[in-house]
User: Fold this.
Amino acid sequence: MRFLIAGLAMLVATSVAAHDETSTHSHDSVAPAADASIVDKRVHRFKQSGAAIQSVFKEHLGADDFAAIAEAATLIADWADVMPDYFPAGSTSPGARDEIWADFDDFKSKAADNAKAARDLQQLALAGTDKGAIVAAAKKLGGTCKACHQSYRIKK
Ligand code: HEC
Assistant:
C-alpha cells in the first residue's frame, strides 16, 4: 500500500502544470478540480492560508474583528494539521525543496508548530479580551510560516 501511494504521488507529481504566478496573491482562487494533483491541492491550501493571514494583518486587527481572526486562525490550523499528508515521498515540485523528504520529521514538527501557533491565536481571538496578546500571537504565527519557508520552500 505504501508503495502504491508513493507511486501514485510520483505519477501526479510529474504531471503538474506550471503554477500561475499571477494568481499567487489572489484571494478568490478557484478550488482545484477533484482529480487535481497533490501539488496543486497543497498550493491551493497554502494560497488560502496566505490570504487568511494577510486578512488578519491588513483588515481584521485594525477593525478589532476578533471573530474573523478566529476564523482565519482556524483555517490555517486545519491546514497545518494535515499539511504533511500533502507531501508524500516523491511529490517534488518547483516550490518545494528536496530537503523536506531528507528530514521529514523536522518538516512535520514545523507544521505542528504552525498548527499550535494558529490554535493559540484562535483561542485568544475567541476570548477577544486581550488585543496585545492577539497581535503577539498573530506575529508568532507568522514566524512559524517563515521558519518552515526558510528551510523548505523555494520562492518562485
Ligand atoms: C511545514 C512547512 C510549512 C509551513 C509551516 C508553512 N508553509 Fe507555506 N509553503 C511550504 C512549502 C514547502 C511550500 C511550497 C509548496 C509547493 O510549491 O509544492 C509553501 C508555499 C506557500 C505559498 C505559495 C503557494 C503558491 O502560490 O505557490 C504560500 C502563499 C504559503 N506557503 C503561505 C504560508 C503561510 C501563510 C503559512 C503560515 C500560516 C505557511 N505557508 C506555513 C511550507 C510551509
User: Anything to note?
Assistant: The pocket of heme C is lined by residues 19, 24, 39, 42-43, 46-47, 49-50, 53, 76, 83, 93, 95-96, 107, 110-111, 114, 141, 144-145, 148-149, 152-153 (CB under 6 Å). The radius of gyration is 16 Å. Helices lie at 2-14, 38-60, 66-82, 99-102, 104-127, 131-152.
